Amino acid sequence: MKIALTLLASIGTFLMPIKGLIILLICFITFDTLMAIYVAVKMKGWKSFRSALLRKGMTSKIFLYLGTVVIAFLADQYIMGGTTFGIPLLLSKGLAAVWCYAEIKSCDENSMKLGNRSFFVILKEFFQKATGYKDEIKKIIE
User: Is residue 128 part of a domain?
Assistant: First the structure.
């Protein structure tokens, strides 16, 4: 038991620089899984909720996403020397951003299954309106 705790403490200490990325990815995966459960129950009822959904969706994603981020962290530390183009842990951060985008897209697809508009379309319209307001403010100021 003492050896196992020492090993876990060593691994935890080693991964401390990417603690935030790991927590972020776990939050995104959890939110996506909860969204998928909500959509499945909303569309097909409680009969559609199975433990296989959690096993297939959440567990495999956690191992894949966190495993690749840890490997990217190792590459950042020992191959790139900790910084790339002056940015610390660039490869780890970039890969975490890609996985977060994948989870956001998955949540968006689940939301569209319920008949909602795409989050990205709403965001695009928001920026178009904001740009229009900016132009109107410039005209008023001039």
Answer: no
Q: Residues 11-19: contacts with CB within 8 Å, 24+ apart?
A: 15/70, 15/73, 17/73, 17/89, 18/69, 18/70, 18/73, 18/89, 18/92
Structural domain boundaries, residue 108? 18-117
Query: Does any domain span residue 135?
Result: no
Would 6 be classed as within a structural domain? no
Q: How far is CA 44 from CA 4, 36, 58, 109, in A?
A: 44, 12, 20, 17
| Assigned domain for 52 exists | yes
Look up the pTM and report it. 0.78
Dihedral angle of Cα 58, 60, 63, 65, to the nearest 10 degrees = -80
Q: Tens-digit pLDDT profile for the chain (142 aa)?
A: 889 999 989 888 888 889 999 999 999 999 988 888 888 888 877 777 776 666 677 888 889 999 999 999 999 888 888 788 888 888 999 999 999 999 999 989 988 888 888 888 888 888 888 787 777 777 777 7
